[in-house]
Amino acid sequence: MTGPKLLIVTGMSGAGKTQAVQSLEDLGYFCVDNLPPALIPKFAELVSQSNGKIDKVALVVDIRGGSFFNQVNEVLSDLGQQGYKYEILFLEASDETLVRRYKESRRRHPLDTHGEVLQVIREERELLREIRGRANKIIDTSNLSNNQLKEQIIAEYGGDKDINRLLITVISFGYKYGIPLDSDLVIDVRFLPNPHYIPELRCLTGNDEPVQKYVTSHDVTREFMEKLTDFVDFLIPHYQNEGKATLMIAIGCTGGMHRSVTLANKLGEVLIQKGYRVNIRHRDIMRV
Which InterPro entries match (predicted)? Predict the structure, then answer.
């Protein structure tokens, strides 16, 4: 069955669904917020009868639907059996980030009946576990600004060929703070000599020249960078051939301040020189 492009937008409350929908509207999507799952097939049928006037639809479905939300997985299975094609975009963030956002906004969580925000966030995460497992794309917004989220949405769902070409994010992180949840490739560089143990370098970061010189002065670093660059250079065209819109390469060291930052910068620079669209981010560089 041919029909409109259906995008189901769901995820954690406070993870950025509103910003995502605004970006999708800018891309020409017809957006409906908080649609009861039981109405999705009927809505898809109506849109299919629009004779092409509506060809891209984003439906926001989340736990605000209360007891209706329990039907979502069954409804989506039926939708596929009826021949409708759809994708699921799932937005999430860490518990810490969601608690902070709720406290800053002073908004009440949809499941909150007793004032314990962290507990209801964990309850919601469990309720969403199945649909998260069915998602075509998961975006962790914990460390994304609104503009960065918008860029990812445009890269993934934009129609313009130039805008929609592969967006590569090279992100540094510290293993002590956890691996970025939306990583495609995770590179562990904890085997490299650690500037943390050099007193004059400890308080600096991989953005500082003395740290960069120290990390890259070792033969093991130079050899590793050559192999890593060749590896990534080999993979990217294959990802592009598969139609992948975004690629996140996460490079991690212990604290996310020195080695990972240095190598993320170096890899990002090499990829930019090769003509790729690259975003370089350092998730944990300001943590102590």
Answer: P-loop_NTPase, RapZ-like, RapZ-like_N, RapZ_C
